[in-house]
Design goal:
- Helices cover 19% and strands 30% of the residues.
- With 118 residues, it is α+β, with helices and mostly antiparallel strands.
- The strands form two sheets. The chain has a four-stranded antiparallel β-sheet. It has a three-stranded mixed β-sheet with strand order 4-1-7, with no helix packed on it.
- The termini are far apart.
- The mean pLDDT is 87.
Length: 118
């Protein structure tokens, strides 16, 4: 009886330890867009690029264009842990000169960023 309990316990511990390397969360990013006065901007087109050259030429985007919601937020999921270049545009306002590059995203986390358009 003791041997079977020990085997079951060891089997459970082995099964649980195998999940420790399994990544539960995808790397993602939530961007909040505000204007130069700090007000939330709804309806801003946001797109990510993998290099500064692609960003400047607006070629090879790594994501589709997404629009910010009523709270000024947009979420990108299943990203790589790297630096991205953000293009945020609404009418004649954009984020050029107000910060376009992210920090390297933390793997397996929801990374948060605020972008200013002016």
């Amino acid at each position: 009886m003791k041997t079977s309990k020990l085997l079951i316990f060891c089997g459970l511990m082995l099964a649980l330890s195998s999940f420790s390397t399994f990544q539960v969360f995808n790397t993602s990013m939530k961007i909040n867009v505000r204007n130069e006065l700090g007000n939330i901007e709804e309806g801003v087109s946001v797109q990510l690029f993998g290099s500064e050259e692609d960003y400047r030429n607006e070629t090879n985007p790594v994501t589709e264009k997404l629009m910010t919601d009523k709270k000024g937020n947009v979420k990108f999921k299943e990203l790589e842990s790297k630096v991205y270049f953000v293009n945020a545009v609404k009418g004649d306002k954009n984020n050029v000169g107000a910060g376009v590059a992210t920090a390297k995203l933390e793997d397996g986390k929801m990374n948060k960023l605020t972008i200013i358009i002016e």
